[in-house]
């Protein structure tokens, strides 16, 4: 009896999936790098405020991926804070009718100026008296290049920001919207 295992002529179609595709050799290192960059960024967010006072914004284009990751982490933190606020506010709205006279004007203001919800997390510069704190990120990079009138680096910073906003939209915002639209619709 001659038994031979050949992936091309096997009865089990899932046996072909054991071999990696060509793009897997590109995707796996990219995912590992993104996880490492997120871990480093998260670790640096726990640094004391005194570190930010002495940290200067570098205009080296090689630092742009780091700044983009920092900005993205701040955006994710803002989204988590927004979700927590929404759940707490919605629960209060459902349980207390008397507080509606206070809640509705606050909600109207927050809806009219949505940037107020994200301002605490995505702030680039914070100044209190003589103390100025600069949070490294794409906004700080673009502001610094604008202050030095370095037009090519301004364009580069805006291009990197546009790329990360598009990636953020395609990988997180659109799938979340599609999920909510398909599963949570009240038609």
TrEMBL record:
The chain crosses the membrane at residues 21-42, 73-94, 106-128, 154-173. Signal peptide: none annotated. It is found in: Membrane. Gene3D superfamilies: MetI-like (1.10.3720.10). Its main location: membrane. Keywords: Membrane, Transmembrane, Transmembrane helix. It is a multi-pass membrane protein. This is Sulfonate ABC transporter permease. It comes from Paraburkholderia metrosideri. The lineage of its organism: Bacteria, Pseudomonadati, Pseudomonadota, Betaproteobacteria, Burkholderiales.
């Amino acid at each position: 009896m001659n038994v031979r295992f050949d992936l091309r002529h096997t009865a089990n179609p899932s046996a072909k999936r054991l071999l990696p595709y060509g793009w897997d050799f590109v995707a796996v290192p990219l995912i590992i790098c993104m996880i490492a960059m997120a871990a480093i960024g998260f670790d640096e967010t726990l640094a004391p405020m005194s570190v930010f006072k002495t940290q200067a914004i570098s205009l080296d284009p090689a630092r742009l991926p780091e700044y983009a990751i920092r900005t993205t982490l701040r955006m994710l933190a803002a989204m988590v804070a927004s979700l927590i606020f929404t759940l707490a506010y919605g629960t209060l709205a459902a349980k207390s009718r008397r507080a509606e006279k206070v809640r509705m004007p606050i909600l109207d203001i927050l809806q009219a100026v949505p940037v107020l919800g994200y301002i605490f997390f995505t702030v680039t510069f914070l100044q209190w008296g003589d103390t100025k704190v600069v949070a490294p990120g794409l906004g700080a990079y673009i502001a610094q290049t604008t202050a030095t009138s370095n037009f090519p680096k301004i364009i580069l910073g805006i291009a990197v920001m546009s790329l990360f906003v598009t990636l953020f939209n395609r990988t997180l915002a659109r799938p979340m919207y599609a999920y909510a639209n398909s599963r949570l619709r009240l038609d």
